[in-house]
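Subject: Sanity check before I submit

Could someone independently write out the structure tokens for this chain? I want to compare against mine line by line before I put it in a report. The sequence has 351 residues.
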Amino acid sequence: MSTIEAEVDALRSEALEALTQADGEAAREAWRAEWLGRKDGRLTLRLRALKDAPPESRAALGKSLNELKATLEGELEARRDSARADALSALSADAALDVTLPGRPQSLGRLHPVTQTMNDCIDAFAEMGFRVFEGPEVEWSRYNFDAVRIPDDHPARDMWDTIWIDTLIEGERQMLLRTHTSPNQIRVMEQTEPPVRVIVPGKCYRQEATDATHEWMLTQIEGLAVDEGVRMSDLKGTLYAFARRLFGEDRRIIFHHSYFPFVEPGVEMAIDCFLCRAGGSDCRTCHDTGWIEILGAGMVHPEIIENAGYDSSRYTGFAFGVGIERVAMLRWGIEDIRHFYQNDLRFLRQF
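---
Independent answer below. Compare away.
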């Protein structure tokens, strides 16, 4: 055996013997620092001293020392793997861990209750022959107000009731977040020849004080039917069928006269309060009226018909706007509309 081989074998034997005696991770780390440490590890220092070795033996010695380094690193890692496996086995035995048990299930997403209600409303009207039309949420004031007979001095145009876009066009604010889905009556009739039967689902925005039945953002479905001979009885029949589809045959429904600039006559449809069942006794949801209004409706004003380019002497129509959040409240007995947008999973997971 050459002198180089003898020297390397001696280092190997000493290092492996010391590693065998290293019990525990702290002891193994101390061994690593002593033999393989970057600054003053014994093997590291020996490799640095190669520059002083005789030229004729330097290559062979360097090769042997690098092979020894690889051997020691491999032995250290093998002992660490063995120690980890032993620790896992001990843990499994102590805790009686059943590795065949399934993992924790993933929490699945679901549709928001407002979205569920919206889809059910769309399905109900689709069964009656209405098709879906989508309009913009950022709307021109001429569609939101002028075309649907809301005059310049109407309070809805005030900055405290409507969310206006700051951009000025010809020195005036002309764009806004739509306050209702009614502008789409004009958009639909501009693009469609009669007969017309559409619904327009979407969000609307109003600067409104929030309470148990009002929110600044609301979801509506606008409905429009225009044809020859459309009557008020057609409107009532459509809305009765819709209400029975969503709430069942036992719910009480009333219509009462109301004013909307774009219909004449105008009505509101209300359903008996799910809390007091039209008893109206100290109920904060229906404000002691016994009824919750879910939609406004009426016969389309002849001026709206003319604004869209139709002949009002030939065509008549009805329109309605359904408040989706209020429908959802009635369906599931939710007493406060604000629950829908508080992002409370304890609430949302119930649907």
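---
OP: Matches mine. For the report I'm noting this point. The two ends are 82 Å apart (CA to CA).
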